[in-house]
Amino acid sequence: MLKDDFYTIVEKNKTNAGFSFLVRLNEKHSIYNGHFPGQPVVPGACLLQMLIEFTEVMLERKVKFLQADELKFLVPINPIEDNILHAQVSYITGSEGKINVTAAFSQQSKSPCFKCKTVFGNI
Fold first, then answer.
1. DSSP character at residue 99
2. Suppose 72 and one of 46, 66, 85, 115 were both cysteines; which one would form an S-S bond, judging by CB atoms 3.0 to 4.6 Å apart?
């Protein structure tokens, strides 16, 4: 939904627990006209949608968002200052087909700006 428009996956690598993603944010995307003019910030809803899409890439199938156990927006992401985002995403398949996903997003040489623990299900 946002892939290849709001962001582009530059690199993805399989890790022991999941994947790492290197993405380039489209700093000219129209969403920043309203969020916020002259001081763009990546919306939290977009970060969550990106996580959904990363999970689908990892699992090679569609998933649905079930719940967020923890969402931490630690530092605003300004795509004009730094449009490269690193994401570490890991998962464990739980009971009843639930997928427990943990993620941390960070910009170049910065500590995490977004961390979360979520639960997804199969569609």
1. E
2. 115
